[in-house]
Amino acid sequence: MNPITRRRLIYGGVAAAGVTGLAVADRLAKRYGLLPPDGAGIYGPGETLTYACQRLLTVSKPAREFPRSMISKNPFGNEAYPPGDEFKRLQAGGFKDWRLVVDGTVARPLSLSLADLKTMPVQSQITEVACEEGWSYIAEWIGTPLSNVLREAGVLPQSRYVVYRSIDKVIWDSIDMTDAWDPHSLLTMGMNDGDLPAPFGGPLRLRMPRQLGYKSVKYVNHITLTDDIKKFGKGLGSVSPEYGYSWYAGI
Amino acid sequence: MSTASPVLEKTKIRRHTGIVRVTHWLTFVAFIALLVTGFEIVISHPRFYWGEVGNVNTKPLFVIPIPASRDTVPTGYKYVMPDQNGWSRYLHFEAAWLAVLVALVYGVYGAVSGHFLKNLVPERRDWNWHAFKQRIAKYLRRERPDRTEERSYNVLQRTAYAIVIFILFPLIIWTGLAMSPSFTAAFPWTAALLGGRQSARTIHFLVSWLLLFFLVVHVAMVAVSGFRRRMRGMITGYVRDAEEGE
Q: For the residues B35-64, what does the mean pLDDT come to?
């Protein structure tokens, strides 16, 4: 065979395989939800690879748990965004008027008090909070899995993301339905056998133990299910990418 | 007319294969991006710990005496550096993917083609201190490399490259992944074997210094031994005999 033709054949074959591979990858990614909402732009390829690979690896794996003896004596609350006046008013009333509103694509919109949430099945986990800055601590987190609230609200089949917001509304984030139904995604009300202290996000924090600290939004009082994440903020899935931080915080 | 010199002047010596050259420069790009963004990430918390956990309320193993980019870190400085963690983290992981994918291509190539055994593993006869001492002495005397070094590496080069390729690069990838709360959910032993998340972070930091040290020495040696000749070798794949000593 003429060497030029052979070379052309090899290049053609590699190019065709590459195009086919990309097309297959794209279809798989869409079917299994492997594309992050902030997957466009110059950092998109890296972000998508990380999210897709970690999603496939960890979908049925819980975060590392630790023995009680490893619970940190002096955990660090990192009050980077202390809550404002409305929070202080509710705090003065012992959070009796705190409500978790659940709306969006659900059959039964809810407004739950902390007492309501405490009647739901309790779960606890001893997991590590790791901040993107590099520091970390271990605590026991007690609460009820988000899935219990979702079940009570009746998630409509078109739902694709759960958006959760802090009382100050500036901080908001979202997870896809796989993470939302995960039994370890915990609506946390207690820490180390006491109520969850305010510096750590009390009275209510959504713990996402397989992701970095900033994904576990503090002072959660509003959950919205949606079929279209683009409708929220700048459409990047959370407030983090609007400040330059990735939506997915598994690394 | 001398018989040898005109022939020698035209002699081109094949030095690096295409895959070695392409993976070398892609790794260079990825490494620079990782170095810069890694520095930006470190300054958000320039304290290091050993074990599973560590934060401003725990005793550090060591502290880098620089201002931090977060005001929650007690550094002793009144100045808080600009926070660049967002894009730095995005780029750090994208560059890490480039480095890992390139390493996979290079690793498969190196093993299958015999490049590792031929060029990187020190030759059998050099597995002794005498060979090391001899080559170091040669460097110190600033002797010109002999003909066998035209086509491959000497024992010191092989040892340095082998340590970087087979120990430091795998270690920095491992320690990087061991800091991921998601990756360690799937593979808990990757963090446990290192002594915990903070140990992984500390090793990651120290290995990055070793890699930076390698980069500096590597570039210095290239400059000393003929910058243009070595660059041409790594870009075109060939070096010319006439350039020896340039």
A: 97
Q: Is A74 on the interface with B (CB under 8 A)?
A: yes
Question: Residue B173, class by beta-carbon neighbours within 10 Å (0-12 exposed, 13-18 middle, 19+ buried)?
Answer: middle
Asked if A46 and B93 come within 8 Å (Cβ–Cβ), the reply is yes
Subunit contact B96:A61, Cβ cutoff 8 A: no
Cβ of residue A40 closer than 8 Å to a chain B Cβ: no
The verdict on a CB contact (< 8 Å) between A64 and B184 is yes
Burial class, A69, CB count within 10 angstroms (exposed 0-12 / middle 13-18 / buried 19+)? exposed
Query: Could you give all domains of chain A from N- to C-terminal order, each with its CATH number?
Result: 63-243 (3.90.420.10)
Domains of chain B in sequence order: 5-243 (1.20.950.20)
User: Cα separation of B181 and A63, whole Å?
Assistant: 7
Q: Is B210 helix (H, G, I), strand (E, B) or coil?
A: helix
Minimal CA separation from B109 to chain A, in Å? 17
pTM above 0.80, yes or no: yes
Beta carbon pairs, A and B, within 8 Å = 126
- Which residue from B57, B90, B184 is facing A76, i.e. has the nearest CB? B57
ipTM of the complex: 0.89
**pLDDT, tens digit, 9 for 90 and up, residues B113-135:** 999 999 999 988 888 999 999 99
Of the pLDDT bands very low, low, confident and very high (cuts 50, 70, 90), residue A6 is low
Is the CB of residue B91 less than 8 Å away from at least one CB of chain A?
Answer: yes
More confidently predicted of B152 and B29 = B29
Chain A within 8 Å of B54 (Cβ-Cβ)? yes
Structural contact between residues B74 and B68, judged by C-beta atoms closer than 8 angstroms: no
Token pair recorded at residue B144: 């010109």
Q: What is the pLDDT of residue B2?
A: 45
CA angle A40, A45, A47 (to 5 degrees): 85
Q: What is the number of residues in chain B?
A: 246
pLDDT score of A220 more than 70: yes
Which whole-number Å values give the CA distances from B167 to A123, B156, B206, B208, in the listed order? 42, 16, 13, 12
Proportion of chain A above pLDDT 70, given as a percent: 97
